[in-house]
Amino acid sequence: MSENHAVIHYTADVVAVTDDGRVLLIKRGWPPFENHWALPGGHVDDGETSRRAAARELEEETGVRVAEETLRLVGVWDQPDRDPRGRYVTVTYLATVPATTQAVAGDDARDARDARWWPLTDLPQPLAFDHADI
Q1: What's residue 18's pLDDT?
Q2: Nearest to 88 by CA among 41, 55, 126
Q3: Which of 2, 35, 52, 76 has CA atoms 20 to 30 A from the CA of 128?
Q4: Topology (CATH level 3) of domain 8-119
Q5: Dihedral angle at the C-alpha atoms of 84, 86, 91, 95, nearest 10 degrees?
Q6: Burial, 28: exposed, middle or buried (Cβ in 10 Å; 0-12, 13-18, 19+)?
Q7: pTM higher than 0.90 for the full model?
Q8: Which DSSP helix (H) or strand (E) runs through 87?
Q9: How many Å apart are CA 114 and CA 84, to the nearest integer?
Q10: Run of H or E residues at 51
Q11: Mean pLDDT for each 10-residue chunk of the chain (134 residues)?
Q12: What is the C-alpha separation between 79 and 81, in angstroms, rounded?
């Protein structure tokens, strides 16, 4: 009997919120969902925990630095069809920051085109992937 094992990509996302009710989103500069707003996040590197990857990706994509130990687990999203590139499993963390926290899009070509704080009650639609569910 043969077994069919999926190749799984391991990622970490961050729901960064301010104490006055705004959430940080990035505008994706690459497919899929190019020019759509999404939560900051990305691949977990070899030898890295998902919590460390979440803090690193948040800083790389938005300039917002948080101590990884302050990140709180939100949950794991592993629906088989959540990403058109294949099977992606993401561990999502919550970061709470002061309302005065500034965000800027990363300057790397693979980073965000824009980073902006949005009121939780008025998010741009549609968000990339399943980020509205997260």
Answers
A1: 98
A2: 41
A3: 52
A4: Nucleoside Triphosphate Pyrophosphohydrolase (3.90.79)
A5: -30
A6: buried
A7: yes
A8: strand 87-97
A9: 22
A10: helix 50-62
A11: 82 97 95 95 97 97 96 97 96 98 78 90 96 94
A12: 6
The three-point CA angle 125-130-134 to 5° equals 95
Backbone phi, psi, residue 39, to 5°: -70, 145
Decide: 36 and 126 in contact? Cβ < 8 Å.
Answer: yes
Q: How far is CA 23 from CA 28, 56, 113, 131, in A?
A: 16, 18, 17, 12
Tell me what pLDDT residue 3 has. Answer: 74
Residue 20 has what pLDDT?
A: 96
* Residue of 20, 12, 11 whose CA lies nearest to 96: 20
